[in-house]
Write a structure and sequence with these properties.
It is built from 13 helices and 21 strands. By secondary structure, the chain is α+β, with helices and mostly antiparallel strands. The strands form 7 sheets. Strands 6-5-4-1-7-8 form a 6-stranded mixed beta sheet, sandwiched between helices. It binds glycine and manganese (II) ion (2 copies).
Length: 446
């Protein structure tokens, strides 16, 4: 386990220290999802559950009971079963839950109806993420009702429900040294995958063939899945923000926008690069590209402890709007175009998001009505873009259908920020040089 066992124990302790006295926290594992008929999606543990337990199996429920004499951390999980394990694979069982995963106590998941109401009974507050898992919401309600039905015999049902996710998501926002190590490794694999796609790209290939190269690089380095559906968008497809069909043929003269990142040990990476299929940017492509790159640089300069969340976004809006005016794609005063949000015809998304176990990670962006102030250990993406819609008749034809985004992952440090994904080039000249070198090598081998 790349996140050490002691760290899971520390997280549980830290959460329990924030819980009110006489309370209990309940978290279910992620369900198994069916893809079609009896074929399942590859199992991915729920991020909150994983964060507190490191336990990789479905059909499990973690219970935290601060101050409980017989142990504060209880895990319900599947029993060992020779027959099922022959078909479906290893199960830790109750002994494994204790020995391998640090549970103080473990019970078969099939006994949860009999045991959990007894654990909840007498506790004043239940910490639970209501609404995230409707099946489990219903089951928890039933267990509470079991206790209520016994009130006349002296059973004490809980009186308060508290949003567990709020506490947990604030913890998840601050990455530990061990988490940063995993995220750095994920970032490096993804950077290598983007380089590979640039090296292999040729007009005539299909978008999915570049996707296959990304996937190959992810998996051969230990990633089991991409952190989100990879976007490989040639030409005007780059103007569709969440394009994931990846079925078009790449043409000479296209820009290729690839937004892809691997997941490693339940941590995401998220990189976008945009490069010319031919290996050379056209003047228009390069003009737009250089503005996006300048916007990203301006955003990095606005990320440091004490700066607020929105400063990086504001920096990108400033540079992009001024750049679009310089190119004649927007007309007017920069300040007015920002105030009227005219830039949104070309730049319609935000400059980034928190990054962690989920690609769009948890954590509040505003606190007490103000943008959140950045602190060391927070990880975010920086991803400005310019997209000239193919049907934008307000601009000369030569600009239409150009879509550029450049995205990197950064961690806030004590003095500023560090880029986790700088293993993949992004200066236009560097990209052209990398692609030219790959072509020269291929020709020499041919
Ligand atoms: N790939 C999703 C994003 O960049 O937010
Ligand atoms: Mn992305
Ligand atoms: Mn992103």
């Amino acid at each position: 386990m790349p996140i050490p066992k002691q760290e899971y124990a520390r997280r549980r302790k830290s959460l329990m220290a924030q819980m009110e006295p006489n309370s209990i926290a309940v978290l279910p594992a992620a369900p198994v999802y069916i893809r079609n008929r009896d074929a399942e999606y590859i199992y991915r543990q729920d991020s909150d559950f994983q964060y507190l337990t490191g336990f990789p199996e479905p059909e499990a429920v973690a219970v935290l009971m601060p101050g409980r004499e017989h142990g504060e951390y209880i895990l319900f999980c599947r029993e060992k079963d020779k027959e099922r394990e022959l078909w479906d694979g290893y199960r830790a069982g109750q002994d494994g839950a204790v020995v391998e995963y640090g549970a103080d106590d473990a019970f078969p998941i099939n006994d949860i109806d009999d045991i959990l109401p007894g654990l909840i009974e007498g506790r004043e507050r239940v910490y639970y993420a209501m609404g995230a898992n409707q099946d489990f919401d219903r089951r928890l309600t039933n267990w509470i009702n079991v206790i209520r039905s016994k009130a006349r015999q002296g059973a004490q049902p809980p009186n308060e429900f508290v949003a567990l996710d709020h506490l947990l998501h604030d913890m998840r926002l601050y990455k530990s040294a061990a988490e940063l190590k995993v995220m750095q490794a994920a970032a490096q694999i993804s950077a290598q995958a983007h380089i590979r796609a640039m090296q292999i790209c040729r007009p005539g290939l299909y978008e999915y063939q570049l996707e296959a190269e990304l996937q190959h690089e992810f998996m051969r380095n230990g990633s089991r899945a991409p952190a989100y559906a990879s976007i490989v968008a040639a030409g005007r497809n780059a103007c569709i923000l969440h394009y994931t069909e990846n079925t078009s043929q790449i043409r000479d003269g296209d820009l290729i926008l690839i937004d892809a990142g691997c997941e490693l040990d339940c941590y995401a990476s998220d990189i976008t690069r945009t490069f010319p299929a031919s290996g050379r940017f056209s003047p228009e492509q390069r003009a737009i590209y250089d503005i996006v790159l300048e916007a990203q640089e301006a955003a990095f300069a606005a990320i440091a402890p004490g700066r607020h969340w929105n400063e990086a976004h504001e920096a990108t809006v400033q540079v992009i709007t001024a750049g679009l005016v310089r190119l004649g794609l927007l007309k007017g005063e920069v300040d007015e175009l920002i105030a009227s949000e005219a830039y949104r015809a070309f730049y319609m998304h935000r400059a980034g998001h928190w990054l962690g176990m989920d690609v769009h990670d948890v954590g509040d962006y505003r606190v007490g009505g103000e943008w959140r102030v950045l602190e060391p250990g927070m990880v975010m993406t920086v991803e400005p873009g310019i997209y000239v819609a193919p049907d934008n008749e307000d601009v000369p034809r030569k600009w239409r259908g150009i879509g550029v985004r450049i995205e990197d992952d950064v961690v806030v440090t004590r003095s500023g920020c560090e880029i986790l994904t700088d293993g993949v080039p992004k200066q236009a000249d560097e990209i052209e040089a990398l692609m030219a070198a790959a072509r020269a090598r291929d020709e020499a081998l041919a």
